[in-house]
Write a structure and sequence with these properties.
The protein is of the alpha+beta class. The protein is built from four helices and twelve strands; from the N terminus they run H-E-E-H-E-E-E-E-H-E-H-E-E-E-E-E. The protein is globular, with a radius of gyration of 16 Å.
Length: about 190
């Protein structure tokens, strides 16, 4: 697929989002994927945004659900990404993936495989230093670091309730995971 092909798909994605409010659309492994947005998903993003925003050093900004083309078959809309503030100020609907310094995805029932298997490989291959998977279904956060061509070489799983400290190239980020929602309908939850 050429760059103009990606531009065409991006245009189609924008139209789909307008036709189906309440759904997030992405291109994953060459397919257009639509996921319903659930309250716990949105609440997790909002809380993480509030936690992270005050800890970012000057010159960096948060973006959510904007497009980042990775290759011909993948254009992700991360739940939260840290990019240079100068780029964020351009107020675009799509940015180069190489701008991302840290990325976070919130798991939904439909996104488990993509968030845990597909996206880590792509994020790591672009050298994104830190990837966080916030999982309200399992009540834990997975932190990945040390990117390589085949994925992240470092990985920890922290149950919600403990503070997570992530050492990033931008400095230390502390996330009090006890403030993040857990889906009471998730398997294994009562």
């Amino acid at each position: 697929m050429t760059v103009s092909g990606i531009d065409r798909l991006h245009s189609q994605l924008s139209k789909l989002e307008d036709m189906f409010p309440g759904y997030l659309t992405e291109i994953v492994e060459g397919s257009i994927v639509m996921n319903p947005v659930r309250p716990f998903h949105g609440k997790t993003i909002q809380r993480l945004w509030a936690i992270a925003e005050d800890q970012l050093p000057s010159g960096w900004a948060l973006v959510s659900e904007v497009a980042f083309p990775f290759d011909d078959a993948n254009e992700f809309c991360p739940d939260l990404a840290v990019i240079p503030a100068e780029a964020e100020a351009e107020n675009l609907s799509a940015y180069p993936a190489d701008l991302i310094e840290l990325v976070a995805e919130v798991v939904s029932p439909e996104s488990i495989r993509r968030d845990y298997d597909v996206k880590p490989r792509r994020y790591a291959s672009r050298g994104i230093a830190n990837y966080l998977i916030l999982d309200p279904l399992q009540g834990h956060v997975v932190t990945m670091w040390n990117p390589g061509p085949d994925g992240y070489r470092g990985r920890d799983t922290i149950p919600y309730g403990r503070d997570l400290t992530v050492d990033t190239p931008l400095g230390r980020l502390t996330i009090p995971t006890g403030r993040l929602p857990v889906d009471p309908k998730a398997p294994g939850r009562s």
